[in-house]
Amino acid sequence: MSYDGRGEQPPAPQKPVPIPDAVTAPFWEATKEGKLMVQRDIDSGQVFFYPRERSPYTLSDRLEWVEVSGKARIYSFIVVRQPGNPAFTPDVPYIYAIVQLDEGPRMNGNVRGIDIEDVEIDMQVEVYFEERGDQMIPQWKPVGAPDPS
Amino acid sequence: MTGTLKGKAALVGVGWTPARRKWPDKSQKGMQADVAAMAIKDAGLRPDDIDGLVTEAPGGEDANNWPAIMADYLGIKPNMASGVNNMGATGTTGIVLASTWVSSGLAETVLLVFGGNQGTQPRVAPRPNPFVDPYGPVVAANGWYAQVARRHAFEYGTTDEMRFKVAADQRFNAQVTPGSAFLEQPITVQDVADSRYVADPLRLLECVMPCAGGGAMIVTTPEKARAMKNKPVYMLGAGHHTDHNDLSWADRITRTPAVVSAPRAFNMAGLSPKDMDFAQIYDCYTITVMVTLEDAGFMPKGESGPWYQETDTTYKGDFPVNTHGGQLSYGQQAGNTGGFSQPMEATLQLMGRGGERQVKDATTGFVNG
Fold first, then answer.
1. Complex ipTM, two decimals?
2. Angle (nearest 5°) at CA B251 between B247 and B252
């Protein structure tokens, strides 16, 4: 199908909405309740992320979901000026960061509610949840800051 | 160490196309057949002499069973054949695999062949990642290595200008490398600084340009190699290490698997970084070269930035790195040929066939993929 500019307009690109599966469903159910959860290996007590069917520490399948504090530090970040997905183009420039939870595991996310020039590695941030389609996705903001809109 | 590859395999032939942005009249099979023919001829062999095949997998034109597809296309009937996919390390992994075959008698003379036609072949689309995609990343590897560059600056004080020197030195080398995509396009550190951001802090001239092309090499036994027409280049040591996929989950993103694989290779060889006449280092980005050189022990961890500022790494410099220009300045050729350019260049250098970019009196080199 082609769009000639006279008739139908191309659909606006949509930001991806996570699609839960059997492994990740508990994570996404928790974010809807405002909770950030990671998995714990019951045998070793170690926590990890991303969700798996077995522990990367022991290969045990005795796992449980536990809530974490939602506090983290920025481990590293980039400033996105040219997103891979054009749905994000209206947002540029923005921060795409790897954050390290106080409990250890790392997550990817955006850091909002702060000027880009003020973002630094090791800065303390806390989670908030952004409505995205039928899901709530974890995002990050300076500690104590109001939730960015 | 009970087993070793030291002196038990030799590189005896190279086939390598120029890097071009597009090669519209060439299929992937045709591209690989071209370089296979070049390498076999370069070694002074005939197709019947090949009894082992290492290629990539999946191929682009036919995702399944690429090694058999290529054996069929080339009209060879190898006793050992396998597809390798270790991303940038595919080519170097292939050489290690071929070396184990010839040292154990599973095969005697192995053809390694990679290549393709950038942009005209299907790729296997990555599965959606619900913990990455919703946040609007840049194209995958650009973002990963930009994160590494930012973190390296934080941990070690590495400046942007230190990274830019990697790109400028390699571009100098590419000016005398026939087939390079950037002939007659020298750049300065300032040019790199003036190029646009691809993934802040990485700038355009710090990132590889995808190209079409292919590369092939022949690995054989030392006994056979001694009777062949080229000066053999012997395997002295090898090491591999895999420790993560997505960099987000690496223990430390400024540390590469070379921190394990390089000492293993040096130990097998009984050599150390100071014994190397050059290094050919996988270079999807400037920072990739820097962290790998550190982890391989060419300088203390974190000091690649000051080292680059003090060191001429061109082919005629204090310690040459990526003498063909690397992928950054030769062009990153499709089908995993990019990371195969480093061992091809090392082999040509050690055969004394580096032409204008020949490193003087080079006898021993370090290769990373």
1. 0.92
2. 75
